[in-house]
DNA sequence: TTGTACGCGTTATCAG
DNA sequence: CTGATAACGCGTACAA
């Protein structure tokens, strides 16, 4: 079934069918109705390959997700999809393996599919301005704040202030009297990662309160409970007198909490814990875990808005920084 | 940049470039090298729209996920992607909203993009044989066992035995002396859902042990902690003397556990809990939650295998039923 | 071994 | 208001 068949059956020309389907040009109401009924009857769907080939431009939006199993992204992905569909565009979700260059992957996809726009969710900070320029189509970075050596006018972003947010959590723990606070994150010592930016905030808080920074208190740890568990175990075994843990994700925090609890220690009695992200599972943990919560759904929503503004020809790149929120649920308490 | 440009620059004909790119036909080594170097140099990527249009068939596989935020699916999605890419095909992940007909959505996609094959992950059981036949391309149902009124030879599936698995969990709780066991699931009373199949197993176990089935012990509940929490709260407030809870997903179990613990009751002291799926978060919950674990990654792997067998012309549909495993971590204990 | 020419299903331009 | 027709970029007979 192609447009030619529909045209023949409807007794009209090909272009008329095309006009009806795309609401372009003018078609008499009777012809339109006739064509539409045939389309309905034969369940005809235009071939998007042919369409995109001709238009040299598809209306497909791609979402490049670095770590699709990250629970924090789950609701964000849903919202992106909702918003993109609301604007009548198909969405392509593309999982990007850890270690794979998301820009290169996007580049490939753009050329292959003539994409309309791209949203990057998660990922790292180390790409050159040139790489972004080569993308050649509108894009938005979600979750990423600043890029080293890249002119802010060259890209749009939606994020929270990672440094400030980590500062907030650490400062809170310090205000409760904690001194030996450990920090768990992915690649904390590697430049241009979310982990390193949060480490910056952690350090800043320590410094402001005159607490010496001790690298032994920082553990590298993937964003999953099992890794948080292992990292926290390692830390506890060092006997550094840790009384508080700050994890760069709730998933890590949950693993760390398990390590603490299964060691016979109590939360927050012996160890206070603060996570990051604000996923549901942390709230329903027992005890409920404190966290620095990011407004994920709104961030997703605004990302799509910006993307479509850019597509509509809005040349000004925008940077929206959301406020994170320290949510206290009782997994931290004053040192006695 | 198109194939013509590459041909001109390389000083060869279009078809030679095509032959090099597709490894079809025979090309002299020197010409091949020259063309490839030009391709590399200009970073040329063939336009997949034109390619698929011409071939009347793309090599794209679609994964229709019903509820992409379901944590149990996270690793499965990753594995599907890995396996599909391993076979040199691009994967399109398509989130299907709750309430949206996944077959209709797939149908649309198939016509639009000339898909190669489809994997359905999650979703319900109520589609007619005719609908499946209309898809017209190879597909595999993952997570779904049987379909009402559909000839098994009309589709392939990869799943566990939901009835048997639920039976196993309930039987375990009964063997520990529990009599008032409640059951939490999505749409337990609606036919053709996973929830209803697991309810069947639950009932079967009760019956075999001569325990009367009480509908008041069954709560409808979405697959997320917040709903599990609310459902468990409702149940506890009924004062039915519940000593054990069986949840149709770990996410529900986590919410239910929180409800129990925050009511001042203990697990497993006062209430035993068994979940379903085997997600990481349940293992790192405190206490670690017992569960009926599904081998998600293997299921994903086999799904892709079957799909490609079908694509390769293997006409026989297959049904692989994996064994679920009752994982005891200490959240259940003998009634005293 | 290589190049030429046609057609895949659409949209857009133009003449009617 | 409508219908022919020329591209879009690629794969593939078929001719050289």
Architecture overview:
Two copies of one chain form a homodimer. The first copy, chain A, is of the alpha/beta class. Chain A has three domains: 3-53, 434 Repressor (Amino-terminal Domain); 61-161 and 295-323, Rossmann fold (3-Layer(aba) Sandwich), CATH 3.40.50.2300; 162-294, Response regulator (Rossmann fold), CATH 3.40.50.2300. Chain A has helices at residues 3-10, 14-22, 29-42, 48-55, 71-86, 102-113, 129-135, 162-175, 194-208, 225-237, 250-262, 280-283, 296-311, and strands at 61-66, 91-96, 117-121, 139-142, 156-160, 181-185, 218-220, 244-247, 272-277, 290-293, 319-322, 325-327. In chain A, α1 (3-10) crosses α2. Chain A is elongated, with a radius of gyration of 25 Å. The first copy, chain A, starts with a helix and ends in a 9-residue tail after the last strand. Chains A and B meet through α4, α5, β2, α6 and α10 of A and α4, α5, β2, α6 and α10 of B. Chain A binds a DNA duplex (16 and 16 nucleotides) through α1, α2 and α4.
List keywords for this structure.
homodimer; about 325 residues; alpha/beta; 434 Repressor (Amino-terminal Domain); Rossmann fold; 3 domains; six-stranded parallel beta sheet; six-stranded mixed beta sheet; 12 strands; about 45% helix; DNA-binding; transcription cis-regulatory region binding (chains A, B); HTH_LacI (chains A, B); transcription regulation (chains A, B); transcription (chains A, B)
The gist of it:
Two copies of one chain form a homodimer. The first copy, chain A, is α/β, with parallel strands linked by helices and 336 residues long.
